[in-house]
Amino acid sequence: MTRPTTHPRQRSKAARRRRRLGFTLTELMVAVTGGMFVTVAVFGLARHGSRFFQREARIASATMTNMIGFERLRADVARAGHLSTPNVQRDPFVCSKPQGTWPLEATRLAAVRIVPGGSTDRPPLTANGLDPDQIFLSGSYSTAEQFPVRDVAPSGGGFNVWLKVESGAMARIGGPTQLAQIFAAGRMLRVLDTQGNQHFGSITGVDTTNPLQPFITLASAPAPIFRDNAGTNACGIIAQCGECVASVINLIKYDVRNLNDDSNFGGANANWAPLYNAAATGPFDDDRTELVRVEIDTSTGAFMAGTEEVVAEYAVDLGFGITVASAVSPNGDPTLLHLADGNGQIPAWVGDVTTLGVGFGPQRVRTVTTRLSIRSREADRRANITPAPGIGPGLYRMSLDAAATQWARVRTIQAEIALHNNWQEQW
Fold this sequence. Notes:
The protein is of the alpha+beta class. The protein contains 7 helices and 15 strands. The chain has helices spanning 8-21, 25-78, 104-107, 123-127, 168-173, 179-182, 346-350, and strands spanning 112-115, 134-139, 147-155, 158-163, 188-192, 198-207, 215-218, 245-257, 290-296, 309-312, 315-328, 334-339, 365-375, 397-399, 407-418. β14 and β15 (407-418) form a beta hairpin. The model has no long low-confidence stretch (mean pLDDT 88).
């Protein structure tokens, strides 16, 4: 039996009819439901991916901030004692010894002074068992130049130190007009005489009225010593000190503090107000802390206006250890003693030099182990890291709230920094 055939025109009509029918309701519902599931999954992945990226960006920012801030701190520590004295109280090359007429900060001039736990306490730090240290550094930080001296002479109850204009140092800084910035009032001046002895003075100003004869003015104390014609002062400046050289000495301090209500000048520092602006800050920023650097006026002990700066934001800990030459053998080989951060003997070596015992002092310090910790801006963890085998000791997270449910991640950098300006000092 033969199968009836369909005429081509009839087949074409049937196809057009089927095409006009489109999707059934069931097919449409399945397609829409499937599309919704795909959309939800895509949005979920995008949200989690964005959140993960933001969290990692925050910790990457904390790491970068730590690296930049630590490098600044490291450079300043390494430069301690540059063109200065490691310990003005015991330095055998200091001709003008500290006296009662000297300003307090001048009498305790030293390359490094460490105050364990010296930073101001803040509730978030205390709650996490953190007690950051404080460090004072002195040396020539304004410039690396030594300026040839033309003359040193008493004047008006103080002293004048004339500088040679025709010198490489003067040419490199740009001439006399830059002197006022380098030798600012409140800093100290060191004059190294032709015998290798040091004399110190407290700078009160710079006179460049005559650009060819600029001079630095010093207070009456500390006073340089002059060798008289009778030769009674074996240690002193000879004649006009025409072959002497002068260098500036800065005294700077690092610590961890909040500049919104606890600046070095008391209360808030308006220069850093944008850091604490409620419209720009994140959660818990009202009690955040920073690594702060400031310069100290050595004549008054006050802080110098315009020198307070934030070196690293969100700093939460600062610690220092030292390695000292505790003894020196007859052949010159030292016995090295390492005191880790928190060791109770540290103040005996790098405390106030006016109170240190014989055989101790910052001149014996060979390295300073420096540690800086920075937290992320926002909390992105619900708990601290549980101690376990394989996890080294250290600060990985810190709690930001009283209930200890909001934890910010912490990044720490530590390095042992050599004090190159101290390496030969054995007195």
